[in-house]
Design brief:
It is found in: Membrane. This is Histidine kinase. The protein contains 17 helices and 18 strands. The strands form four sheets. Strands 1, 2, 3, 4, 5 and 6 form a six-stranded antiparallel sheet that branches. Strands 8-7-11-10-9 form a five-stranded antiparallel sheet. It has a five-stranded mixed sheet with strand order 13-15-16-18-17. The longest helix has about 70 residues.
Amino acid sequence: MMNKMYKNLRFRSKIIVIFGIMFFFTTAISGFSYYQYTSHDIEENFRVSAESVLAQIVDTLDMRLGVIRQRAQGMLTNYTFVVSFSDYLNNPNDLNLIKTMGTVSSFLKDLETGENLLHSSFIYTDKGEFDNFVRMRNWQFQFKESEYYSSYIGGPGKAIQWFPTQTDQIFQDTDEIIPCVRRFSVEGYKGSLYLILQLKAKELEHILAGKYEFFDKILILDQEGNTIIGSEGIDAAKLMKLAQKEGEKGAVITSDYEYEGNTYLVTCNRLTENGWQIFGLKSRESLLGSLQSLRNVILETMGVIFFVGVAAILLLSHQLTNSLRKLEKRMSLVEKGDFNTRFFYPYKDEVGSLAKSFNYMIGEIQNLVKKQEETIEELKWERDHAAEVQKQKRKAELRALQAQINPHFLYNTLNAITWQAADQGAKEISILSNSLGKFFRISLSKGAEIISLKEEIEHVSSYLDIQRIRYHSKLNYQIDVDEQWLDLRVIKLILQPLAENSIYHGIKEKQGTGLIRIYEEPCSGEAEKILKLIVWDNGAGIPEDKLKILNETLKKGVTDRLEGYGIYNVNERLRLFYGENYGLQFESVEGQWTKAMLTLPVTDGEVDSCIGS
């Protein structure tokens, strides 16, 4: 299909299409290659920079967590602190408790003051609980019922346990904290002691806040994949798997991560102090956003080059195809019937050869057209002559078919008159004679082939009156045709043969009184209005197989002289006069009834005339 469309293009269009395709692919491939190279270079630079930024974050957090760890270690090994705890735990009394509470409170205050990242501290022992009295305690908090204590039950575990970000449980506030539980011991005391250090989640976020200009999202996960700090909705488990997959390549990874319909470049590093993993996420769209201007420049350059190239190609194609366009105009004149036109071209190139062939072809066409016109005139005369002959032939056939009906019925009627005269007397003979007179009057119609439907109904009524006298009470008839159709013009003698057929092939073969009904059924065809005249009887009916053969024969227009000549005569006359789409068809139920249906065309003028009358 595309090949055919291309071949149908003009030369100028073909040149422009070829140039456009070459330009498009050349520029597109160059622009795409440059874009890919630039985007790869930006991603590589980001990877190096991300590694450096994340390393700075890790160094900062490791240093500050290390300071907290060292200060806590220093406090727990301080001689005064240890002696105070040892005296109380080994000899718990009120005096030692007061001394220990003062000493521990002082040490915890110094510990919290030295590092802003530290939110609060708390020490639990079997002999009591200690803090620095700065914050209000939550007295409902029970250390041995908390997750802090349960993490040490069932095994030795690690001395230091980190927990995910949560609301403060130990003190009466709603601050978000990050708990770190450290188990320690005092010489001379066998029980376990626990130091709980709680970090400020907001301070940790503040440390990371300055890095959001470089990363779109930053996430800190502990070793179990729990979120310490980070954006909600990010699939932490997926990031952990990504870190495990890329872990062999080093501390930093760069990979694609799908989140909320965007693709992110992920960088990861691990804290040595507590095993936390820090993930930095950068949207590929925001990273490569600077390339948007580059894409615009490439598109603008492509547009300028394209329009300049098209202008050059149009100028060149005009020079090459100008002569061909002139030849094309001469051909257009020939298409409109001007065979006197010629194309003169002074040069002997390819266009000159075309001009010579064109002029020769036009001369030959002029000669052929002249001969064709002479032949057409002869054919017209032969056509008109054949049409007139065919018209006369059809009129002769109609008259011949019309004439064949009269002798047959005349014989039957005269026979009926003779029989009735012998049996019933002069009155009925008078009726028969009157009806017969009307019958013949309408049959002759002064030689007219077309009569009104009213006259055709009067004709069949006369026939049925004659037959009703003949058959006495064995025959009745009804005619129910609306008056609006009585002025409709039809060919004559189309109803009487059907009524005759109903008597001799239907009612005559039936026991009891027979009934013939004649009525109309108006309907619409595809192109014009149609009137159906129905002749119905309650006679013996037609067997189904015979009915099928009868209708097929009528549809084909075949005359079967052995199966009732009258109905085939009517059908053939209708087809000859109105056309093959009209004629006669039968419906019947054997032993019950038979319906003969005449199909006639009705023009709009005839309908208006009938209704108006």
